[in-house]
Records
---
Amino acid sequence: MCGIVGYTGPNPALSKVIEGLRRLEYRGYDSAGVALATTLSQPLFVAKKAGKLINLENELASDHASAKSGIGHTRWATHGGPTDENAHPHISDSGKLAVIHNGIIENYVELRAYLEKCGYKFNSETDTESVVHLLSEEYKTTKDLSAAMRLVCQKLRGSFTLLAIHSDDPETIVGARRNSPLVVGLGEEENFLASDVSAFIAHTKRALELGQDQVVTVTPNEVNVTDLFGNGVTPKAFEITWDANSAERGGFAHFMLKEIFEQPKAISDTLAGRFNDEGKVQIPELKNLNLGIDRILILACGTAFHAGLIGKYALEEWSKIPVDVELASEFRYRKPVLSKNTLVITISQSGETMDTLMALRYAKELGAQTLSVCNTIGSTIPRESDAVFYTHAGPEIAVASTKALLTQIVGIHLVGLFIAQEKSSLSTAQINSLAAELSALPNKVEEILETVEPLREMTRGFKEATSVLFLGRHVGFPAALEGALKLKELAYMHAEGFAGGELKHGPIALIEQGTPVIAVLPPESSEIAEKMRSNIQEIKARGARVIAIADSSIDIDVPHLIRIPKTIELLQPILSIVPMQVFAYEMAVARGNDVDQPRNLAKSVTVE
Ligand code: F6R
């Protein structure tokens, strides 16, 4: 969670840091702050403010043009509420040293007790403030910020990305990471540090990944990485393929709307190069896996978990291998039985979700092979997996996940087809026909988006509803779960997804006169089409206002019918989810909510 950025170079640091924070604000928006090294060995300039970045920007009267290095932070509160005092940076007693932090310092209580005994005064309720005083203590003896940082990191428990600056060495920024992301952007006589590349893609496409327990020292012309004991490390370099413009809103009212409209291209990019001229599936990234597996386990959180639930149907049917899907946050706390014949697939847009990362590590400890389906190149989860399938959806800035989800589902389908091809559990003709269905999806999503206006208008008519229910069966059930999650997080309404067959076992009691129910219907050829129709009759009879999502093979009498193009049942969620995304988006706008930065949430959940 929390966004972190640092800049050192010839340009005014404040504008670079603020620009980076603007791009990272999706990671957390409870408060924001900056520290700038303006004058050698004098107290740093520090400004911090509760609330969104704009509050901080309004406070900044001057551009502090003399400052050539600076660090900035946008916070998602964990320890201590979203106040000015708890905002980062945190400052040493001398005012010459500043620290920003993403993550959780688990032993901060004992560190704080020790530091208070040493005479340090604390001004916040955060776990981070212990780090700045500890760093200050170590700096007294080392007089070297990098060496002091290494010693501090050895004493910390938990997860952290840390950046520190000291006015004694104003061009230097020192960073460190454990279980939390940090990348270096390599510019011309300037360098950047950030939680992710979106903070600096407008300035450079060259970047370095930092590994676990590494400390980096950055000046305008040099980057030096060591482990926690000062041994030199060669970091992995990578080129950023994302286009700088893709991190801008490009004329759309919100990032979420832009990302919804980017879905046809995102799916095309996921599919690009995956079928050769003979229709064979190509995923060379999987060559290191031994596909003699007898079980697949998908682990993920939130929307990515829904991608897993949807993907399971095709993956199991095509590969003939049993597939389970589990919340990463639950998996970690039980005693599962896994072996080298289990393939664990983690799904994550950010590649940094702490619960998914910890579940991945646990699965590895238990001996499973691991594959990550991920969007963010160079992030921790793919780095720690045996194999990775990148979805290439491009940067997803809105907190609510849209294009990442559709490409995750497509990614799982491609993996399923590849395994089926390797195991010969599908014939070449079957694979060719499925490849054609998958390849047709971008145009079909485009078709939905071209005719979305009436849906937007209809949604506004439901603005006053207190609760919306979502119904589906088979792959329509996890699609319904996703529809409900989107509405909860964006419109702050009660929303729940149900399996049609479960209605009579309890949820039907929720239906009263006028309750809106969004029902996802399968194609008429599905064996559950008739059953879904009966479910709709049952809820209509009890007063539900039904909004049905169906292709033209389905004939149904409901007050609102949203048509989607035809595809095979297994792939239908890739189409049926789109209107539900638009519904949630429009509802949030109609209710005056902040679409891109919904309350209490953050994009990348890097704490447990
Ligand atoms: C919901 C949403 C979240 C994420 C979840 C996992 O719209 O975005 O539920 O899907 O936090 O995030 P990643 O995919 O980054 O692991």
Note: The chain has a mean pLDDT of 94.
---
Amino acid sequence: MSDPFSYEVVVIGAGPAGYTAAIRATQLGLKTACIDRTVNYGGEPSLGGTCLNCGCIPSKALLDASQKYAELEGLAALGIEAKEIGLDLSKMMARKDAVVRQLTGGISSLFDSNGVDFYPGSGRLLSERRVAWEDHEGSTKEFNAEHVVLAPGSVPMDIDAVAVSNEGIVDSTGALGFDVVPNRLGVIGAGAIGLELGSVWARLGSQVIVLEALDSFLPTLDKRIAGQAIRVLRKQGLDIRLGARVVSAAEKKGVVDVVYQDDDGDQEISIDKLIVAVGRRPYTENLLAEDSGVDLDERGFISVNDLCETGVQGVFAVGDVVRGPMLAHKGAEEGAMVADRIAGFKPSVNYATVPNVIYTHPEVAWVGRTEQELTAEGHAIATGSFSFGASGRAIAANDGEGMVKIIADAESDQILGVHVFGPQASELIAQAVIAMEFSASAEDLGLTMFAHPTLSEAVHEAALAIGGRAIHTVNRKKK
Ligand code: FAD
Ligand code: NAD
């Protein structure tokens, strides 16, 4: 009988990056163990990491529910009279928790059916690819691993001026569990978390002030898309204040007093709850023994090359703990790639086509380069755009805000970036990712047939617009 504590692959962390690596490794016939320490409120192991337990999934459960609630206000315009509408927040929260239980349980079943050996508790990389496992009761064991995949993820970043108390001042996890709708809610940071969670609570009735230190809104986004997004979000009631750097927050008798600085000096607001959403940092506490041989970079990320290899042969790191965007799908692709490479295949991750989505309503989604980046580099480009205000399907659905913008190389016509602000942008962007993966030109998209009436036709029309051939809009004259 083989030694039960020797594995071909040991994965530390069962978030999207780690669980994907573990499942793919067993699919490829590798004897695989996965160690994860997350437990739910009942103290039971809960697989899926940040994404399933306190990130992507619970936030989308609340975003979708709160959007349905917010849409009730506009139903009269559609000839629908909905009377005596109420909000049962505890039921909404219970449903969100049930969604999390269902999906974290789903990963457990996938581990069972694929044959991943799951070890609840903490993992630590020792020298020579040995891994120490400590269970939740404090017992320890050691594994010998031919390959180790480190996937410990990330945790919320703090700012010195503001201490998270989990009462009045919370991080993203706290903001997914308020038991009453705060009357006045402050959010520090107009990134994905601030805008998504700010939207949830604004839709449910909070007055939301978002304080963003930078002078520009979502500076990595296409400028035109960012301009449309901030205008629409402000119209929805999000009071987004740019150039607002928070310098202190103090909690007293259920009120949080926040001081921030803008161009006019010190400003003060009093609110009921404050969400700190200023980014996340890689999580490597107690992960690496001093002689593990694995290095961190100056920002605390595990140093890896494009293939997610650390400096130690056979040891890989994937997901939020390594460079690149902190996104579940980016980590999952890295996890799958590493498992495939361990099994002898040679895939790589195309970091040029990582889609990004912010799940506001309308959603913001993009892939590839922006016009401002390319122009700054002196790259000759052509752009085409199409407004959802001219889309038959968007108008029929009463959802005509936003646009699709496509950027192509002026010479070759190859698509370099696609930016969408509009209904179901998260789904539409997949078309752009596929097109870019296949090195499509704007003309390729223009010559493709799209079903009518669909939101996807906006992608088609934006591609046609690059050649001045859009049908349902006036094409801008090209010089
Ligand atoms: P994680 O999901 O953080 O998982 C790491 C796991 O490893 C955790 O379970 C942790 O407990 C465990 N662990 C750590 N150290 C050890 C150790 N030493 N021993 C054992 N276990 C350990 N991304 C998207 O793409 N789309 C979204 O819509 C989205 N929404 C988000 C919303 C919120 C509110 C937040 C906070 C994040 C969101 N993200 C979203 C980001 C996404 O959650 C992360 O990018 C993703 O979870 C990273 O996956 P990972 O596997 O690298 O790490
Ligand atoms: P972020 O980095 O996207 O945004 C943080 C914002 O806070 C920045 O705009 C920053 O300028 C601002 N900020 C920092 N310090 C400040 C201060 N003192 N005062 C005011 N503003 C300040 O980070 P996030 O929104 O916390 O998200 C964390 C990570 O989680 C991101 O990497 C994101 O990719 C991921 N995430 C993704 C999704 C999604 O894909 N839809 C959703 C949520 C989170």
Note: The pocket of flavin-adenine dinucleotide (ligand 1) is lined by residues 12-18, 35-38, 49-51, 55-56, 59, 122-123, 151-154, 172, 193, 283, 286-287, 319-320, 326-329, 331, 359 (CB under 6 Å).
